[in-house]
Amino acid sequence: MQIGFFDSGIGGLTVLAEAIRRLPDKDFLYMADTLHVPYGTKPKEDVKQYIFKSVGKMMEQGIDALVVACNTATSIAIADLRDRYSLPIVGMEPAVKPAVEMNLATGKRVLVFATPLTLQLPKYYALVSRVDEKGIVDSLPLPELVHYCEALQFDRDVMADYFLRKLSGYDLNEYGIIVLGCTHYPFYKDILRSILPAHIEIVDGNVGTVKRLSALVSRFGITGRGGSGQVRFMCTGGEPAYIDKMQTALAMLLERES
């Protein structure tokens, strides 16, 4: 069985790493839309076209299931992708619901980090409206963070300074959870933990997404199609250097969690 993972860049590798740990007997194909990364600052209709072109190339490779490992792409195209293709398709959404549930008893607020486009889309507004009855969710766009991640900018001092500047207008004592609402953002978990107050938890949707993937492929009756744990990489720009970057970033993630 070959499971496809799609993102605009390397962010979806944070979801793929979780899948490799939980589903070690599957094969994986990872596609990055390097011609158009980042999505979060581009017009919605343009992004939808990019997504369908990339997913079409993945279908030609014979994938049995698809993870849209990008919150922005999920918000824009997941319903249309499911209409077009009959295989299991799993999307991402910011982990606002579990964060709100965890924080209700504490009286603390929830702060969601996400791309500007994710925060502007009706899907995000509907999610927050549905689960945030107490009005405890705030949202912070981080338009530069995907660029930093794509450049493999993980210098602790540089990125700590960036986050501190972005958070300078917030009283962090009021918050109990920060939600990482873009799959690129978990690359910075360790740096965030080093600068945030100890009481603040950091959550993302990766574990929940992989659990949904596992349940969905079981429901479709394709769990018996084993694999060898192989990971293949593709990118729309076809750059060998970007393939190398994805391999390096994935190895870093797997080593960090081992």
Description:
By secondary structure, the protein is α/β, with parallel strands linked by helices. The chain has 2 domains: 2-92 and 206-257, Rossmann fold; 96-204, Rossmann fold. It is built from 11 helices and 9 strands. It has helices spanning 13-22, 44-59, 71-84, 96-103, 116-120, 122-131, 145-150, 156-166, 189-195, 206-219, 240-257, and strands spanning 2-7, 27-32, 65-68, 89-90, 109-114, 137-141, 175-180, 201-204, 231-235. The longest helix is centred in the last third of the chain and has 18 residues, at 240-257. The two termini are 24 Å apart. The mean pLDDT is 94.
Concise summary:
This protein has 258 residues and is α/β, with parallel strands linked by helices.
**Mean pLDDT over the full residue set:** 94
| CATH topology assignment of the largest domain | Rossmann fold
Derived from helix and strand composition plus strand pairing, the structural class reads alpha/beta
Distance between the termini: 24 Å
Q: List SSEs in N-to-C order.
A: EHEHEHEHEHHEHHEHEHEH
Across the major sheet, the strand order is 4-3-1-2-9
Total helical elements: 11
* CATH level 1 name of the largest domain: Alpha Beta
Give me the CATH architecture of the largest domain, please: 3-Layer(aba) Sandwich
Strand content: 15-25%
> Which term fits the overall shape?
globular
